[in-house]
Design a protein that fits this description.
alpha/beta, 259 residues, 8 helices, Rossmann fold
């Protein structure tokens, strides 16, 4: 395995499960030490905790930090945990939720605010804390924000989710403009349908008849896996993307640009 992230230290929010687990593991396999920041240590779909898996399967170091991303102090603690690995180099704002899924007139404002707090406000806070640490270190760095295909186009009955993920896109561009002079690159990943607990249990797509029908509308004729997003994150965090910032990288099998 190439060591694209050798000597780097990364924080991954929502790193215990799903896409975050895949990103954390891929980073470690490419040489990065990883802080897995999540509310829960155990992966939702089973298996050993992500930080333990990294230690067992790679030469990288990893630690778990309990972190509710809506709590600024806990986010700061997660970023500070990277100091044990030499200080923050890469921040991945990945944590997110999906619901509520309903007609806009039926959505409780409290549910809207909860989603925005996790899917957008926490990305701002995580980026803000990371920027402060990276500027102080003076060695550049990278911030990778996980948005969604829904951040580029609207979907009926998903108004809060689409709104938050679109906000992540423009937040990414604004941060890239501001932090570029410090050598800090900021990019967003926009996954399409990816197989996680969210899409198999919370709002089932995978494992249903609709999954095959949806796959047939995608040029690559398949839905995504967490590893597909993780590979994109490795690229954006590495020197291979040294002249890439303010980018919105689609990982959707070609769905959006051929619809």
């Amino acid at each position: 395995m190439s060591q694209l992230l050798d000597g780097q230290s990364a924080v991954v929010t929502g790193g215990a499960s799903g896409i975050g687990r895949a990103i954390s593991t891929a980073f470690a396999r490419h040489g990065a030490d990883v802080v897995v920041a999540d509310r829960h240590e155990e992966p939702r779909r089973g298996g050993s905790p992500t930080h333990e898996r990294i230690r067992a399967e790679t030469d990288a170091e990893a630690t778990f930090v309990e972190c509710d991303v809506t709590d600024g102090a806990e986010l700061e603690a997660a970023v500070d945990a990277a100091d044990a690995f030499g200080g923050l180099d890469v921040m991945v704002n990945n944590a997110g939720i999906f619901g509520p899924m309903a007609p806009v007139a039926e959505i409780e404002f409290e549910a809207y605010r909860e989603l925005m707090a996790i899917n957008l406000d926490a990305v701002f806070r995580g980026s803000q804390i990371a920027a402060d640490r990276l500027i102080d270190r003076g060695e550049g760095g990278a911030i990778v924000n996980v948005s969604s295909l829904a951040g580029l186009q609207g979907y009926a009955q998903l108004t809060p989710y689409c709104t938050a993920k679109a906000g992540v896109k423009n937040l990414t561009c604004s941060l890239a403009a501001e932090l570029g002079p410090h050598g800090i690159r900021v990019n967003a990943i926009h996954p399409g349908e990816v197989e996680t607990a969210m899409t198999t249990e919370d709002f089932p797509v995978f494992g249903t008849e609709n999954a095959d029908e949806l796959a047939e509308t995608i040029p690559l004729r398949k839905l995504g896996q967490p590893e597909d997003v993780a590979n994109a994150a490795v690229f954006l965090a590495s020197d291979l993307a040294g002249h890439v910032t303010a980018e919105s990288l689609l990982v959707d099998g070609g769905a959006r640009n051929t619809a």
